[in-house]
Every structure is written in C-alpha cells, then in structure tokens.
Write the structure tokens for this entry.
Amino acid sequence: MDDVECTGGESNLLSCGHIEIDNCGHGEDAGVVCSTVLPASPTPPAGASPEPPTQTCEDLVLPVCANMPYTRTEFPNVFGHSTQAEAEPNAILIFSSILPYGCPAAFFQLMCLQLAPPCSSSGYSNIPCRELCEDGLLQCSSIVEQLGAPVPTDVDCSLLPSAGSGLCFEESPNGFPFGDLFNSTAPTSALRLAGGNSSAGRVEIFVNGQWGTVCDDGWDINLATVVCRHLGFEGAKAALPYAAFGEGTGPIQSYYTTCIGNETDFLQCQFQTEGFCSHLEDASVVCSEEGFIGK
C-alpha cells in the first residue's frame, strides 16, 4: 500500500484510501505504537461487572458419566452446554470414538469432569488435579487429534494443583468401568479386514463411532505392511487398489494415508480426512499368514 489516506474514523485500514502501485522500498515501511488494546465488546459502565452465567445444579443422569463419584452436576459446562441433554451427543461421540483405542479410565474421568462437572455443594472440585490431567491427556492426545474428537488437547497440566492439595478432583485409584457402557457396540479393534478373510480384505478403520474405508491414493506395500503388522501378521504380500474385495459402505476415513513404515499400530499413521475418492477406490491388503505373531 502506498499514499494511504484515512479520515481517522475507519475501523479497518483497508477502508482508507490508497494506491496499489507504489514507488516505495522497505526502507520506508511504516510502523505504529498503539496506546491500548480495544476491548472485544463494549466496556461496561464504571463500577458495573458483567453478569456471570447462572449455574444450575441437577441430578447427574448423563449415562456415560454415571460412574463418577458425585451425583449432582452443574451447568453450563465448559463446552457451553446448558443441560445434560445438550451435552449427551458430544459425550457419546467422544466416548464411543475413543474407547476402542485403550485410553485409560483417567481420560474418561477427565472428560466427565468437563462434560458434567460436580456441583460446588457436592464436596468435589470441578478442577482436575495435575496427575489426572497428565494421566488422562498425555496418553491419549495423539489419538484424540488423529480422530478429530471434540476434545481440547492444548491444556498445560503443569498449571493445575496437585493431588492431595484439597483444591482439585483426584483420579480414582480403581478407575471406573467406562468400557462397560459400550461393550455391546464397541469394536475390540480399531482396524479390520472386510470382504475377504482374516488375512486378506478391504481395510476399514473405526473413527468417530463409525467403521469406514481407506482410499487407495498413495496405497503401497509399505502401508499394507503396517496394516498387517497391526493385525498380528509379520508382513504383507500385496497392497491392492480399486476395491479388490468389494466396495465398502459408510464414510471414507482417510483419503490419503502416510506411514513411516515402522509403526505397530495403523492408527499411528497420518490420515488426510478430506479429498476426492469413492468406494471404487477402497484399499485392500493381503497379509502373509506365515509368521503370524498374534495381536
């Protein structure tokens, strides 16, 4: 921008008059020193304080959090849900998508503490202890990010109070049987072969509560080897494109997959979740049955 002219009332520099063609060099770059940062919203009158949201206590009936040690919960929660009914779809999405990956009970305790926090009168703090945060998030943050689950993972656990301080919610040493909530529907593995047999078939992964396929773009023996190793085989005989074992249904969970090659879990690879692919391009593998090491 060159020869910029403003009246002073503009809220956006681009609203000022200027010319696109200039004869300036970077030795003439303009700078400013601002006096203060403008508030994001109108400043309340002097002496007034913003009204905090009204917290409402009610019996804890959210099914996925029924095993928490408190029986009363307070809303709105940190996700902005004003009722348990509003929180339930988000809770089910988080729990059903994460359970197959073996995250510890601490993760689900931490999630329930955010989804359905205890009432202040319950005797339990709604602030997680540092140890609960670390045990819950550090072991599962990569899985959460890979799945795209609606869970914040950029939390600095070191800023939280320690267990034993009486200022936070401590992890239960016995955990809670959260897995029992979904035993009837949750898969025992997040990866399966479909349309063939136990050692050959269409690659399908379980993400966000749904089984879906993997696109064959970039599909090669390196990726097939990781899939077969995940399933307990020593290696792969073939990486097959073009729905060799039939077209799958449901979402295409990865449009392009990248593995280093030494992964023992296919879900450690990188998945591109947007792209152009159809089930005509579902990827398949044929694993080597010799040297089956089990899973």
